[in-house]
Write the structure tokens for this entry.
Amino acid sequence: MPSSTKYIFVTGGVTSSLGKGIIAASLAKLLQARGYSVTIQKLDPYINVDPGTLNPYEHGECFVTDDGAETDLDLGHYERFLNVSTSQANNVTTGRIYQHVINQEREGAYLGKTVQVIPHITDEIKRRIKLLGNTGNYDIVITEIGGTVGDIESLPYVEAVRQLKWEPNFDCIVLHLTLVPYLATSGELKTKPTQHSVKALLESGVQPDILALRTEYKLTEGVKEKVALFCNIEPKAVIQAIDAETIYDVPNLMREEELDKVVLDKLSLPYKDEPTLTAWNEVLNKIKKPKHKISIGLVGKYIELKDSYKSIAEALIHAGANNETEVDIKWIHSESINDDNAKEQLSSLDGILVAPGFGERGIEGKISTIKYARESNTPFLGICLGMQCAVIEFARNVLGHSNAHSTEMEENTSAPVIYLMEEQRSITEKGGTMRLGAYPCKVSQGSIAYEAYKENNITERHRHRYEFNNKYKEDFENVGMKATGINPDNNLVEIVEVKHHPWFVGVQFHPEYKSTVINPHPLFVGFIEASVAVKNESTLTSNNQ
Ligand code: GLN
């Protein structure tokens, strides 16, 4: 058990979207490869208690952990890079901090005192930061502070960091990520925004220890020296974070910059093993030098913001690498598909994935897409709402229940093949009340899913309120849609498959959350494998004609 955990705070300056999550995950990866146990925490400065109630257009996908936390999508990066699970404690929002403090106040915990941002809110932030370290499971905790330094919302977090830096026996450093823009007209890399953002941190009493500079072009030594001089940073602690071909290059790039060594020096920790990243680089190699290429249609209604489907897109890359295949994702708006144009819009695809989602918008397009995938023998993976739509499509077009629907979209449908789960019926509040997190599933031998997982007992993560209506199960099975994965505790249908189709699988759970670089998800691997096989077969057939 590690004796005392050390902390690395990651802050961001100049603009948002610089990729703090990727830098944090890459650093963690290098430290992990040196033999340290590391975890990453994200502090989000918004007032929602969790991102579960946010529309994906706001901050992208909502990631779900095994223990049922609805979290920021950065936790997905942490898991994909580190190959270890995160939990409730890894994501904290301002809403959660305030909720806790206000509940305490109501309980009388501060009787007589004025409850204030300092010290009460900052104390609660500090308590949350220390929670992961206090488990004794980690040598190093990396805490990423969302938002940009200088934002009103971030102030209490930066203040908490300032206090912690001065706390005896609390060992921490601050890594600040900023931008060095390139001005094409003068052909120069500019350091002023970085200087200003460090100044903003200094105004809050925090001197960063390391600067990582996002840049499109290689930084000259001159630029690095200038930044070091103006920002009170040791020259070797000014790290170049250059744009990468893929996010999975960043650990190697950070290693070249010796970020891990600089961090360990500053934390007075030994270097331990040299990070080889052998398995990681094998995957990276396959991503960069694929033998095949296929197009997968990702059909959803939030495609204008690709981050809405972050884990799915990454899972496709992992599974592609496993099959030495480049997966070209075609982002297709579900509202743009109907029965009349489905063939024309979808026939060039080698596989079709229908995405999770909520509500009525785009639902008929998803159903038309699935009809096309089923009838044209195109490999199909339906996730959560995508699986539910596959059930509705089959009920309408094969079972002959032309009005079949989910009660989510049509409460009084005469054929409610998808309906509200029993446990959900008395729930009125929206926040954190879905069926969330990991649940077991028993996979039937001989099924496509079994072929992928190669085991009977699996656990997968969930985020839904509606489920397959078991009243119809026999009818479905009689005409070719089989329930091949069942929750052993409550009989909930977790996986459906269509017979006499090369690869047609719908899952009530979210396999994408468990796919990592080193462990691509078996269902995604199977889906890509089938898509490559079907493509190769049809090329053969057309060449022989
Ligand atoms: N809206 C559906 C439900 O709540 C599906 C949810 C999802 O796709 N995550 O059951």
Summary: The pocket of glutamine is lined by residues 356-358, 384-385, 388, 408, 463-466 (CB under 6 Å). The chain has a mean pLDDT of 95. Residues 173 and 266 are 7 Å apart (CA to CA). The chain has 18 helices and 23 strands.
